[in-house]
Amino acid sequence: METKEALLKKLSDCVFDMEDEEVVDVVKEYIACGYDPEEGMLRGLVDGMKRASGLYEEGEYFVPELIVCSDAMYAGIEEFQKYLPDSEHTSIGKVAIGVVEGDTHDIGKNLVKIMMETGGFDVCDLGRDVPLDKFVDYVKENEVDILCLSSLMTTTMPGMGIVIDKLKEAGLRGKVKIMVGGAPVSPAFAEKIGADGYTGSAIEAVEYAKSLVDA
């Protein structure tokens, strides 16, 4: 039987090397050894995606490579979810998430969505290039605890602040907590636009979201 660390590395490598079929077999092997599925997702699959994102930032991987890496990660997560205890699917809060208007980059948003669901949240994915008024309308028409806004472009970042202003104008700001994220976003920017928080990774996003619903 392989050690947990060895299998975690295999999971990470499958994502990093874009092996969307092999990753399913490694997940099954990992589970057969009795190891924790959530740890496999976080320290295996997500780690591989982080490594791929690092090469993207260095200019060695490009968007097509990232997409195939994310396909491998999603394939692994889908297999892992079959082995999660039912208790882990109990909703601890409702989240709406989307990429602001003008931005079609959604790999980070998709990763946060998956990790939120894994962490116990009920998530509505509004998609990418979401019209700013659609965020406001969703909050108005639905019970939602947290609204997550994502942007990977400096040119679309201001849309996050506009959404918050529109929520204030509609008298809805007090109804929902707002989290923001994306490569160009910072804690200072989040504070400036009046968001409730910023996180730099999907794992941090889940923990911060839990702190918001517990507050």
Automatic annotation (TrEMBL):
Keyword Metal-binding appears in the UniProt entry: yes
GO cellular component entries: cytosol
Metal-binding recorded as keyword: yes
PROSITE patterns xrefs: B12_BINDING, B12_BINDING_NTER
Superkingdom assignment: Bacteria
GO terms of biological process kind: homocysteine metabolic process; tetrahydrofolate metabolic process
SUPFAM superfamilies (UniProt xref): Cobalamin (vitamin B12)-binding domain, Methionine synthase domain
B12-binding N-terminal domain segment(s): 1-92
Domain B12-binding: 92-215
Pfam families, A to Z: B12-binding (PF02310), B12-binding_2 (PF02607)
Key words, A-Z: Cobalt, Metal-binding
GO molecular function: cobalamin binding; metal ion binding; methionine synthase activity
Family affiliation: Belongs to the methylamine corrinoid protein family.
Protein name stated in the entry: Cobalamin-binding protein
